[in-house]
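User: Structure with 6-hydroxymethylpterin-diphosphate, tokens only please.
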Amino acid sequence: MSFVLPSGPCWMGVLNVTPDSFSDGGNYLDASRAIERGLALVEDGAHLVDVGGESTRPGAEPVQEQDEIRRVLPVVSALAEQGIAVSIDTMKPVVAREAIAAGAKVVNDVTALRDPAMRAVCAETGVTACLMHMQGEPRTMQSSPTYTDVVSDVHKSLVESVRVAKEDGVRKVWIDPGIGFGKNLQHNLSLLRGINQFVATGLPVLVGVSRKSFIGRLVSDTDEPAPLERREEGTYTAGVWALSQGARILRVHNVAAQRRAWTMWEAIGRGIK
Ligand code: HH2
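Assistant:
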């Protein structure tokens, strides 16, 4: 059975089984703690748990295929066995294939299925693929990202990635402008302002803003981005904005808090029943 989007916002909870993710790195390297965290995310309302075994933050150390599999597989299979919908956050076709065999329903690829082998895995298995835009590579992407017009450049690039994926037989795709992936503060704000242009493609749009450094930069009084604990309010505000513009899936660390923020927004918009 494939993953079916709920009619309202789809809450994708972040679960990084890594030592070095920028927000939850080192917290869930132990499989039993990671599984517990996945269950807690679902209790908080997550429709989908996004399991990742390699950090994509700028400068993160690459992870070998087998190490990544060792990290994510027990977590994916334990959650899937309990009926939880899991997405696998990976750039590696072999990792994706193993995770799908263990029950993952969505492949979340921050390289937009750049690798033909990844497109083949998604086509053969019929999973949903999330195609995220990134300029450059994780290691260097933040050095000097450049666009002519960030919204139309990213839009064009994603439309092309979708075309190539479909040509290779990938049937179900979501798109994601890739907030923070080869983008400066102004680029990220422009993409959020223009999110409706991605929604206009008719494809489900995923947005991930949770605790990202552009929020820290915006609220900082110094040259350094504010620490994680001062990025919460910006996370929920940007998340609500994205959903209000038609984004369907929100990737977030604190699902419960983001849902509360959305409840407020919705109540104002529709009137409390
Ligand atoms: N952001 C991160 C990782 N994966 N996938 C999608 N589709 N969209 C995103 O915005 C996105 C993503 C980065 O966040 P996180 O997983 O918390 O950190 P790290 O990459 O350091 O593990």
